Amino acid sequence: MTPAHNARRLRVALLASLLAPLVASTVACAGRRAETGASDGAKQSFEYQGRTRSYVVRAPAGLTRTSAPLPVVFVLHGGGGNASNAEQMTGFTRLVERERIIVVYPEGTGRFRNRLLTWNAQHCCGPAMTERVDDVGFISALIDTLAAHYPVDQRRIYATGMSNGGMMSHRLGRELSTRITAVAPVVGAVFGDEAPPERPVSALMINGLLDKSVPAQGGLSGGRGASSWDGMPARPNVDQGTYWARYNACDATPQRDERGSVLRWTYRCPTGRAVELIQLKDNGHAWPGGKSGSRLGDTPSTAIDATDVIWAFFKPLTRER
User: Fold this and answer.
1) How much is the pLDDT for 224?
2) Dist CA 268 CA 181 (whole Å)
């Protein structure tokens, strides 16, 4: 076997051990795919650029293509995760019936079909990054696919995600700003070389001050997935707010509020736009109020429920014409 093959096998083994296998479990369903008769929560897929791309849709019961248009929330799993893991971790499905929304759990790519999947978020993570997988194009094609089967409100499409998925939601906001209304990265980061979005996109960021994988002060990852980055150090957490405030024409200096373990920065923005940053003193690399992403993951803070906070942020926002 050649040195190149040995190196490739070593990288795969390291990624598998560093990210840790994620245990996916069946989660109670909330809806049914419109007009198809597909079973609740059945994984769906289509071919995009020579790859089979998969996703899970949760929609309100009884929904048809001619129903009133509904908002769509994309929930992106973290590095090494999958759709089932993202659903279990965030609990977003519980909002489907109550809030009348469509929740979509897309899956990244990897060398294994259903595990150790990653997103190409530019500087992270893993094979998706090194192989330059067009995940932005995939999500754009997925929006079109959803619109062909569901009553999608094209002005109320949102994206959130955890870790690598949070970084990917940043990228979707930048590169799909004509389609995405708002983003909410959780324990994500920016790196300082991001291009501006074509149009304003509202943003809510949630981070943990105990996070070693995405350090609050910026720098290189110190967590289990460190080797899946490309070596570009992340900017401090607060730079996420600075980035989105700038391109939403918000005030540069936010209002700061501290309540218990919750630090919140709110930027004053033009009507119809919003930028906020929340940092939790007692949260590491985890989805606050949710479940740990793996058996080796950090324990989530209970100071806030990130899923409820994110939807409350998204709910009033409509993409500008």
Assistant:
1) 66
2) 18
Q: Which residue has the higher pLDDT, 252 or 321?
A: 252
> Which is more confident, 226 or 25?
226
Q: Is 200 a domain residue?
A: yes
The Cα–Cα gap between 199 and 241 comes to 16
Please give the C-alpha separations between residue 221 and each of 171, 225, 234, in angstroms, as whole numbers.
19, 7, 8
pLDDT at 58: 97
* pLDDT tens by residue, 183-206: 999 999 999 999 999 999 999 999
What is the strand order of the sheet 152-162 is part of? 44-48, 51-58, 102-106, 70-76, 152-162, 182-186, 202-208, 275-280, 262-267, 255-259
Q: d(Cα 185, Cα 81) in Å, to the nearest integer? A: 16
221 part of a folded domain = yes
Output the CA–CA distances (angstroms, integers) from residue 52 to 45, 103, 110, 112, 270, in the order listed. 6, 20, 11, 12, 41
Enter the DSSP assignment of 134: -
Q: Domain for residue 29, yes or no?
A: no
34 domain residue, yes or no: no
> Which range of residues forms the domain containing residue 265?
3-21+44-314
Q: Which of 2-16, 22-36, 176-190, 294-308 has the largest mean confidence?
A: 176-190
In one-letter notation, the amino acid at residue 144 is D
Asked, as a colleague might, if the bond just before 124 is cis with ω within 30 of 0, I would say no
Tell me the pTM.
0.87
Rg of the chain (C-alpha set): 18
Specify the residue for token string 């080796």: 296
